[in-house]
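Kindly go through the following sequence and its backbone structure tokens. Advise at your convenience whether the structure tokens fit the sequence:

___
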Amino acid sequence: MEQRNSPEVRIELWDEGDLDLLRQLNSPEMTVHFGGPETEEKILARHKRYYEIAQNGTGKMFKILLLPHLEVVGSVGYWDQSWKEESIFEIGWSVLSEYQGRGIATEATAKAIASIRSEKKKHKFIHAFPKTKNPASNAICRKLGFSYIGECDFEYPIGTTIRCNDWRLAVEEN
């Protein structure tokens, strides 16, 4: 998706050195749509999952870098998921508060979708599940061509049910 005046971003695989970014993304203002901050123990476990996911072949997590200065400004990723008895990719993103509203998440998510499409076609669809009360993330889904499926209850984090919108995008481009 080319847009005029879009920020230039690069996505790079998450690695062991990205724990500080995950801690920044775990702040109360950054987790308002995710049920609040996680404990340090859960952050350490999440960090390990993030940098091991590509090695396991179950998805990819990336840090988002804003060009030209390579500022680390957020994360985007996708992973295998089972949804309504179907195997899918789930995709998610998070951009630090001070960088929001610039189109960074849209550009980074488009790059993550391109990564999915460049791989062996393992699943038919990519789903995103932004909270119903998260207009920015729902707008990203619309901009990137996802189809709105409807509202649903979704468990995130594990043990917490939140009301989300289910957005779907075909892995194969038409």
Notes: DSSP finds four helices and seven strands in the chain. The first strand starts at residue 9 and ends at 13. Strands lie at 9-13, 59-66, 71-83, 86-95, 125-128, 147-155, 161-170. The CA atoms of residues 73 and 99 lie 7 Å apart.
